[in-house]
Task: inverse folding
């Protein structure tokens, strides 16, 4: 469960990041101990009661209205994702006094059929925590060829792409811009945690990463919030070399946050050639990996 301090910490982090001069306040240098906005300044600019705002920052304003939250969001210049996160934290869904044990998610038969049909496109199905529920042959070869292909089929062995990004050295090395990917991963996880404060498995994942990775703990403490539905992945695959792949993150209807992520390369590009080579290299009748590596060096992605 997200503690009440999550709301206060989020608001404090955004107050601290907003300099008074940006919103028209000229601070007296000898009387100011903070670089960001004070509580009373934020309340004044948002035209809300300082008492009401203080209660909100302390996690004691469960009936905060949309008008109040939107006024604070505008004053803090929050993004749409950050505004949605603020509302999730300020008005969490009522929790049961006896939370049900987490349900084990599975990819549907139709989703698995779709993955199997996508023979030339790497694709995976994940739940809201980024546990891999299923992947096709090329998706496995692209992201986690060092893991058993059947690992998503056993809940206890399922790969989690966020955990792997921070704790699996081979997966970390796949990304040429790891720092950027890490920031995006933490920001997306923050958004999910705000929407599902009673998800015990999600809380356990966050706790594990916080305890075992200083980089994750540092990023988590900054309270980044951002959704990521599409973009470009810059990879250096150990078998076929550099690739730039576009991805689309598609929500699967009638599921609890399951998504299908598919990766594609620009037609005619070296990345497309590398992706085809990866498919042939990892097929049952694959050539010797050393031959594949020699072939791909002829057209690397710059």
Result:
């Amino acid at each position: 469960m997200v503690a009440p301090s999550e709301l206060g910490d989020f608001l404090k982090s955004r107050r601290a990041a907003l300099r008074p001069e940006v919103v028209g306040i000229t601070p007296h240098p000898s009387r100011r101990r903070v670089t960001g906005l004070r509580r009373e300044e934020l309340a004044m600019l948002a035209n809300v009661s300082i008492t009401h705002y203080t209660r909100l920052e302390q996690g004691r304003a469960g009936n905060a209205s949309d008008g109040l939250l939107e006024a604070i969001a505008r004053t803090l210049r929050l993004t749409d994702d950050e505004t949605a996160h603020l509302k999730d934290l300020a008005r969490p869904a009522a929790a049961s006094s006896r939370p049900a044990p987490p349900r084990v998610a599975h990819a549907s038969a139709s989703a698995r059929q779709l993955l199997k049909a996508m023979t030339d496109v790497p694709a995976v199905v994940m739940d809201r925590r980024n546990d891999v529920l299923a992947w096709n042959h090329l998706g496995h070869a692209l992201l986690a060829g060092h893991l058993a292909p059947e690992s998503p089929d056993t809940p206890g062995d399922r790969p989690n792409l966020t955990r792997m990004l921070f704790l699996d050295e081979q997966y970390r090395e796949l990304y040429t811009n790891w720092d950027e990917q890490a920031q995006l991963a933490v920001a997306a996880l923050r958004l999910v945690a705000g929407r599902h404060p009673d998800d015990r498995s999600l809380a356990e994942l966050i706790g594990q990463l916080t305890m075992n990775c200083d980089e994750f703990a540092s990023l988590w403490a900054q309270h980044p919030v951002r959704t990521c539905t599409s973009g470009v992945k810059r990879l250096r695959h150990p078998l076929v070399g550099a690739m730039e792949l576009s991805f689309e993150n598609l929500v699967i209807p009638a599921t609890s946050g399951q998504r299908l992520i598919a990766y594609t390369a620009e037609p005619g590009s070296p990345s497309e050639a590398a992706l085809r080579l990866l498919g042939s290299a990892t097929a049952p009748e694959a050539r010797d990996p050393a031959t594949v590596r020699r072939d791909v060096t002829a057209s690397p992605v710059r």
Observations:
- The longest strand covers residues 241-251.
- Strands lie at 123-126, 132-135, 230-237, 241-251, 259-264.
- Confidence is low (pLDDT under 50) at residues 94-98.
